C-alpha cells in the first residue's frame, strides 16, 4: 500500500488550513509572477492533465496521489465522513510505529475511532470491533488490519464512486485539462 502523506494533521483547524491551501492551489491557475519557491510549490501541487483520469482507474491510484488524496479528503469532509480516511491513514501510519510505542499509539487510535463514544467513530460491524478490541490486549503492527480493510472497502465501494461523480472531482478534472 502506498503512503501519499507522511504525516497526519493533528487538529481540525490544521486540517482545514491544509485542505484549503491544497484545494485552492489545485483549482486555481496563477497567471501572475511569483517567487521561485512559490513556483516550485505550485508545480508540485498543480494537477497535470492526466492525473484525474488516473484516479478514475482505481481507488488505490487515487490514494497513491497526494493531490488525489487531498481532493478525496476534501470531498469526505463535505460529506461528513472524513473520519474514514483519517482512520485509514492513522492505521497506515501505525504500521510503521516502533514496537516500544505501539501500545500508546494503538490506544489513541482505538479511543479516537473505534471505542465507545469515540469522537470520530468509524462504521464497523460488531465482530470487527470485538476482534480489534481483543487485539488491543497485545498490540502488534497488524492489530488494526481487519478494521482498516473494512473501512478501505467501505470507501472503495461507497465513497469513491460518489467522489468520481462529485463536483469536486469533475471540476478538478476540467481544470486539469485546461491548464
Number of structural domains: 1
How many beta-strand runs? Answer: 0
Distance between the termini: 30 Å
* CATH H level, superfamily name: Regulator of G-protein Signalling 4, domain 2
Please tell me what the overall shape is: elongated
Pick out the low-confidence regions.
3-13, 27-44
- CATH C-level class is Mainly Alpha
Radius of gyration: 18 Å
InterPro entries: RGS (IPR016137), RGS_sf (IPR036305), RGS_subdom1/3 (IPR024066), RGS_subdomain_2 (IPR044926)
Protein name: Regulator of G protein signaling 5b
Organism: Sparus aurata (Gilthead sea bream)
Domain RGS: 58-169
Features:
179 residues, mainly alpha, Regulator of G-protein Signalling 4, domain 2, 10 helices, 67% helix, elongated
Amino acid at each position: 500500500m502506498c503512503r501519499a502523506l507522511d504525516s497526519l494533521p493533528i487538529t481540525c483547524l490544521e486540517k482545514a488550513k491544509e485542505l484549503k491551501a491544497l484545494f485552492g492551489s489545485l483549482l486555481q491557475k496563477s497567471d501572475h509572477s511569483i517567487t521561485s519557491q512559490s513556483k516550485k510549490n505550485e508545480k508540485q501541487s498543480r494537477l497535470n492533465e492526466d492525473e484525474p483520469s488516473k484516479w478514475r482507474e482505481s481507488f488505490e491510484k487515487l490514494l497513491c496521489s497526494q493531490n488525489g488524496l487531498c481532493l478525496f479528503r476534501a470531498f469526505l469532509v463535505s460529506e461528513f465522513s472524513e473520519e474514514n480516511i483519517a482512520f485509514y491513514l492513522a492505521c497506515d501510519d501505525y504500521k510503521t510505529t516502533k514496537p516500544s510505542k505501539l501500545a500508546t499509539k494503538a490506544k489513541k487510535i482505538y479511543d479516537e475511532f473505534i471505542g465507545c463514544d469515540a469522537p470520530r467513530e468509524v462504521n464497523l460491524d460488531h465482530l470487527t470491533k470485538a476482534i480489534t478490541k481483543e487485539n488491543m490486549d497485545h498490540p502488534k503492527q497488524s492489530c488494526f488490519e481487519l478494521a482498516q480493510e473494512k473501512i478501505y472497502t467501505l470507501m472503495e465501494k461507497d465513497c469513491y464512486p460518489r467522489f468520481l461523480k462529485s463536483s469536486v472531482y469533475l471540476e478538478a478534472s476540467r481544470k486539469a485539462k485546461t491548464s
